[in-house]
Design a protein that fits this description.
With 259 residues, the protein is α/β, with parallel strands linked by helices. It is 22% helix and 30% strand. It is built from six helices and 16 strands. It has a six-stranded mixed β-sheet with strand order 5-4-3-2-1-14. Strands 6-7-8-9-12-13 form a six-stranded mixed β-sheet, with helices on one face. Strands 10-11 form a two-stranded antiparallel sheet. A hairpin with a 6-residue loop joins strand 10 and strand 11. The longest helix is centred in the first third of the chain and has 13 residues. The structure holds acetamide.
Length: 259
Amino acid sequence: MIAAIFQNNPIFGAIENNISDLLGAIKSKDFDLLVLPELFATGYQFLDKTEALSLADELEHGYTFEAMKQLSHEKNALIIYGFPQRVGNEVFNSALAIAPNEKNHLYQKMHLFDTEKNIFSPGKTGFSVFQYRDAKIGIMICFDWRFPEAARKLALLGGQIICHPSNLVMPHCPDAMITRALENCVYTATANRVGEEYRTGSRLKFIGKSRIIAPNGEVLAELGTEKGFVAVVVDPKLADNKEVTSRNGVFDDRRPEFY
Ligand code: ACM
């Protein structure tokens, strides 16, 4: 299976422009799975919840959803993208997985970062894994990386590829994802963004460095600090081997009764 990540630099609030930028960049690319950044079409730094509500989509509605649905059909691929999700008067920092003729899968960010707590409600979906072709896919969003339980839970549920839409501002995540991959023997695909936002009085610089990492911790593909796209062939079955030595396994040797 070909797994791909796209790293963008969205203009805040310019949803149609940001989506057409994506569509132009991947027009001639082939992939089976494409992971896009957190909040990829709206931008990140909402002034307040009212502004986030005004740019949010209801589940399976709206411009972004329709565009991603069409993209998944055109490419015959699974698309995972981050978006602000309106549910009544609440907004969730969500990601949706869409593939042709498949049930969609929703994840709402569990661990909200810093001022996100002023805007978003903490996710209620929990973590889950779903099958797409020969891969078992799990989703977590950005700051979830800081909580090893998130990736562990997805791996324990059988996840083989952890898809990780992100808007990273702290420097440690790209390297920490090597550990997340290694400690769980799974693939990880982090799709981050670049650029800056300065809308609320605090300047945010997004670090790029999106990566696809193998279950043995090898960085298979990575982007720098510019916009970009990269794809690599992955073999989901490799993530079923949890062996470290002939006498050690990352799951078998756990001692949960002492944790
Ligand atoms: C983050 O969770 N967007 C830093």
